[in-house]
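Data availability (excerpt). The following record was deposited with the supplementary files.
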Amino acid sequence: RNRSLYCLLTASAFADGTTAIRPGRHQTTAKTTEIKQAKEKIMGAETAKNGEVNYQVKLQSMDRILHEISRMDNAESEDDLAKVIQQILQAIGEYTGADRVYIFDWANDLHDSMNNTYEWCAEDVRAEIDSLQDVPVTLLPTWMEQFYKKEPVIIDDLEKTKASAPQEYEILKVQSIHSLIAVPIFTSCGLKGFVGIDNPREG
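Predicted structure:
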């Protein structure tokens, strides 16, 4: 089931806020041109904005993400795949300068709650995965509405969401989250979960 997560790269590091993830088997090769175009666009912008040093750092981080993505189809077991996914989350976190990068999946076939199944945390950032199991979707009404419409959740300033998304605000506030990107994951069966990035600083 985890093979549908191969496109974490386009979900986060390259997310432009216009499309949901639509993963499927054997699509990694088909995405090569799209990923390269996004890569060139980002690298060009970073070079102009921050200079050659930051460009080289971003290039190395991006190449690492691409390398880990390419390994997913070659994973021989669920354990191997889980390790690759964890390495992808770390690479995305380091690329974006985030505090946490994570994946949520449905907790059951009723689709009434979600589990935090994967998590990467930056140094000195507290892990939240153990406390984010069986999270009722009723606590995420605004997010779920956007996810089902194949729209990402992008929060630049958490305080601005206090009135419009009060339940999500309370959940994020206690985790010291002030900005966030969350992108829905879709398969042929519909919404599967989402990828989230807490407090991104780069990219």
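Summary of structural features: The first strand starts at residue 100 and ends at 106.
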